[in-house]
Design a protein that fits this description.
This protein is an alpha+beta fold and 519 residues long. The protein has twelve helices and 23 strands.
Length: 519
């Protein structure tokens, strides 16, 4: 394979890669603003310029310096090249670029929501001069509301144009453009057209400074207080990889997690802002003191049981619930809850697809349980049973089944609905953010998600509820729900694929070089 040397390290690369890509693939850091691996290369921020030496075929292939610094994001890697990103020339350029970017940048880091995750801050610390020599008046720009979810702070923009290219190349909606010229150019939206496409929130993520801000997260929490947990889209069948960011047992935001095979670098606004039901006022988290005993007693007295398993819960939860019912009634009627379909699948210009199926684990429930009835068929058969166990965990009102007054209802759910007061025993369930488990997406890909926060109030994972009820019914000691242990049990019981699920990759976690001390 061809080889290039970057800052003294010999690295192999594939033809067609840029110098910057080779460096990043091998863990070497080259500062950059405008470059993003999914966007076109424009090489306009200039901070990635490096000194490049290359073999000269006209001089017996001797290494000779090229006459000027080259943008590593745009320059193809070539066999035999030697690149210096920290030579006096390259360092002088980095300092000059940082100085020019900061000449007109507001000094408002203490109040900026990007503080703590801002490339401008990081690069100013690593590559800047530490002094401002420009004494002219700063060029200022206005703050603009440019969409339902996005606020633009024009003063902070460094004209990397990532957002403009995203709207052109990824979403294909082209709401953003560059107006003006020179030092007075700025990002804007066309009159009367805000950036409200289904992927609009991604421009917030790819903005390297605090120019594009999330209205929903503004002034909510300093980012250095946030803890992260890798998770999976809990609302649709897409299986998009996400990060849940939380503090003091409260979710503050959801961001995309890179997975080139599934969601690339993006998530929809539906997923980004659809987690609010976790802390919704209509959520029921309190349980009567004897609710589990009542539920277990009703199950023991049952002659015929029907179980409705929600497609919103994990494979592990679904399997444990089915095992509980089948241990009491081997012929129990088990069905899957309603799977909502809204409109059609939508594929954007980049190939990213937004799924119309609004359930994260319908396929996983079918895999875990095996012989399961579809919702409409289950409703036809449920009238002949005396005890019904229903799970919900939907993020909003859902098509609850009709349960007659003569039937015993055990409800395991999160939000209040028309069955909550009707239930003979109500057991509050934990949302996906409060437990670990596995979802199977539209393409039958099984993926793990981790718990972000502790269950609120008395709520528990459906799997834990099933284990508690099984312990009472079987007169044994209850055990703690562990998703990994349950997956091994599922595999032993013949459920395919449960041991092939890999732990979440690329958790977006960044280790700080700042020394920390305990208070």
């Amino acid at each position: 394979m061809p080889t290039i040397t970057i800052d003294g390290k010999a690295l192999e690369f594939d033809q067609g890669q840029s110098i910057l890509e080779v460096a990043h693939d091998n863990g070497l850091k080259i500062p950059h603003y405008c470059y993003h691996p999914s966007l076109s290369v424009v090489a306009n921020c200039r901070i990635c310029l490096a000194e490049v030496w290359a073999p000269n075929p006209r001089n017996d292939n001797k290494l000779e310096p090229l006459p000027k610094l080259l943008p590593t994001c745009q320059e193809p890697a070539r066999d035999g090249q030697v690149v210096y990103t920290s030579s006096p020339k390259a360092t002088a350029n980095q300092k000059a670029v940082m100085e020019m970017l900061l000449n007109h940048h507001p000094i408002d880091c203490p109040t900026c929501d990007q503080a703590g995750e801002c490339n401008l801050q990081d690069f100013a610390y690593e590559y800047g001069r530490g002094v401002r020599r420009h004494d002219a008046e700063k060029i200022t720009q206005s703050k603009k509301d440019i969409g339902d979810n996005v606020m633009l702070y024009g003063d902070r923009c460094i004209m990397c144009t990532r957002c403009v290219r995203f709207a052109d190349e990824i979403s294909g909606t082209s709401e953003l453009f560059i107006d003006g010229r020179g030092a007075k150019e700025y990002i804007d939206v066309f009159p009367g057209i805000g950036i409200n496409n289904e992927l609009s929130g991604n421009v917030i993520d790819i903005c390297p400074v605090g120019a594009m801000l999330d209205k929903d997260f503004m002034f909510q929490q300093p980012v250095w207080f946030l803890k992260t947990a890798p998770s999976i889209d809990p609302l649709t069948s897409s299986g998009d990889n996400i990060m849940i960011e939380h503090n003091k047992n409260k979710v503050y935001r959801v961001k995309p997690r890179k997975n080139l095979e599934i969601n690339q670098y993006w998530i929809t606004d539906e997923v980004r802002y659809g987690w609010k039901f976790v802390h919704d006022e209509s959520r029921v988290t309190e349980m009567n003191e004897d609710a589990e005993l009542v539920a277990a007693d009703k199950l023991q007295q049952a002659t015929k049981i029907a179980l409705l398993v929600s497609p919103m819960i994990s494979c592990e939860d679904a399997w444990l619930l089915s095992q509980l019912v089948r241990s009491i009634d081997s012929d129990g009627i088990i069905g899957i809850g309603p799977v909502s379909v809204v409109g059609e699948d939508k594929t954007f210009k980049s190939g990213f697809t937004m799924r119309n199926e609004k359930a994260p684990n319908a396929r996983g429930v079918r895999r875990a349980i095996g012989d399961v009835l579809e919702y409409e068929e289950w409703k036809k058969q449920v009238s002949g049973v005396d005890t019904v166990v229903v799970t919900g965990n939907y993020p909003e009102a859902w098509d609850t089944p009709a349960i007659s007054d003569s039937q015993t209802l055990i409800l395991i759910d999160t939000l209040a609905n028309n069955l909550t007061q009707r239930a003979d025993a109500f057991l509050p369930a934990a949302t996906w953010a409060e437990k670990a488990g596995t979802f199977e997406n539209y393409d039958n890909k099984l993926q793990l998600f981790e718990r972000a926060i502790h269950p609120l109030g008395d709520s528990q994972a459906e799997g834990q509820i099933a284990m508690n009820l099984q312990a009472i019914v079987g007169d044994m000691e209850s055990t703690v729900f562990n998703a990994a242990t349950v997956r091994r049990r599922m595999a032993d019981a013949g459920v395919a694929g449960m041991l092939d699920v890999e732990p979440p990759q690329n958790t977006n976690r960044v280790d700080t070089d700042m020394p920390l001390s305990e208070v």
